[in-house]
Write a structure and sequence with these properties.
Rossmann fold; alpha/beta; eight-stranded mixed sheet; globular; five-stranded antiparallel sheet; 2 domains; 13 strands; binds iron/sulfur cluster; 332 residues
């Protein structure tokens, strides 16, 4: 597959924050907040796939939705093609939607069961001014072929398709307006392994042919390793490590990444993993995250300093950034 990446970021966030207020009392005042995304700075280069991993509830889906402004960020900046889109007024968001799309996890619940595929895939075109039905259907037919479905299947309803085919319909809908960025939010997690592989191959082919950029959000580290050029690891609303995929999987530097990778099953029984790292306790609440390094209550290598100071995300090896005071000195 040709490498379509460029050095220029297509999208970059700067200190992106998304808090959800919790209100209580008679006056419904804010009594606390859920710190779902807490100061994330990440760039995605044009044509690359950035994998975003972490346990459930770490904020990775909220991050994806915040950069699309499906969830309004609390503060920070999102730079897309050289413009800070958080400064856009609401009326300019419609044009932005053409450039950035999302594919959701559950292909069944994300497709309206009362509409035909032609209506579902054609809907973004209608919203963006393609009023002529024939024109819309020509484009839908083209998209059906692009994602490996038959043109005449556009008259059918979602329940008449398998899970993999439904996700192909989701991909066709995301491609309708020729976007530059697609956020795949657990896009293959609900599919069987063999179907997962087909949808991943489709996404890779489309990237090579159309120059797409992907943010690939998943809790499945094996899938992320396969599809991503670089991988970012998120823990309790913060990025703790980001590196080229191969480097991150071979030389994880953050104790959290090391623990996550130690739990990934290895298909080859002759290949022995060094040891499985069992994390202490549960993920702390994002309402009241731990002081200093957020990972310190569960970290096997925590020192006094870790509960007092927050480690910055710094380059430790070429293109490999990690937020740990003792990165490279501890762990696997
Ligand atoms: Fe563990 Fe301390 Fe590193 Fe945090 S900074 S990951 S607590 S060693």
């Amino acid at each position: 597959m040709p490498d379509t990446r460029t050095a220029t970021p297509l999208i970059a966030t700067k200190d992106l924050v998304k808090y959800y207020s919790i209100r209580g009392g008679v006056l419904m005042k804010e009594v606390a907040s859920v710190k779902a995304v807490d100061g994330v700075s990440l760039a995605i280069r044009q044509g690359e796939t950035l994998g975003l991993v972490g346990e459930s509830g770490c904020g990775k889906s909220t991050f994806g939705r915040a950069i699309l402004r499906l969830e309004e960020p609390t503060s920070g900046e999102v730079w897309f093609m050289g413009e800070n889109i958080l400064a856009y007024p609401k009326h300019r968001l419609r044009n932005l939607r053409k450039e950035m799309q999302i594919i959701f996890q559950d292909p069944f619940s994300s497709l309206n069961p009362r509409k035909t595929v032609a209506q579902i895939v054609g809907e973004p075109l209608l919203i963006h001014g393609v009023r002529n039905r024939g024109e819309r259907e020509d484009r839908v037919a083209e998209l059906m072929t692009l994602v490996g479905l038959q043109r005449d299947q556009m008259r059918r309803y979602p329940h008449m398709f398998s899970g993999g085919q439904r996700q192909r319909i989701g991909v066709a809908r995301a491609l309708a307006l020729n976007p530059k960025l697609i956020i795949c939010d657990e896009a293959v997690s609900a599919l069987d392994v063999s179907i997962q592989a087909q949808v991943i191959n489709l996404l890779e082919e489309l990237q090579a042919n159309l120059g797409l950029t992907y943010l690939f959000i998943s809790h499945d580290l094996s899938v992320v390793e396969h599809v991503s050029n670089r991988v970012a690891v998120m823990y309790l609303g913060k990025i703790v490590e980001v590196a080229p995929s191969r480097d991150l999987y071979r030389h994880p530097l953050h104790p959290y990444t090391q623990a996550l990778l130690s739990a990934v099953p290895i298909p080859d029984p002759s290949h022995k993993r060094a040891h499985r790292i069992l994390l202490k306790g549960d993920v702390p609440s994002p309402i009241d995250p731990p002081s200093g390094c957020r990972f310190h209550p569960r970290c096997l290598y925590a020192q006094k300093r870790c509960s007092k100071e927050e480690p910055p995300l710094l380059e430790n090896r070429p293109h490999h950034r990690v937020a740990c005071f003792f990165a490279g000195q501890v762990g696997a």
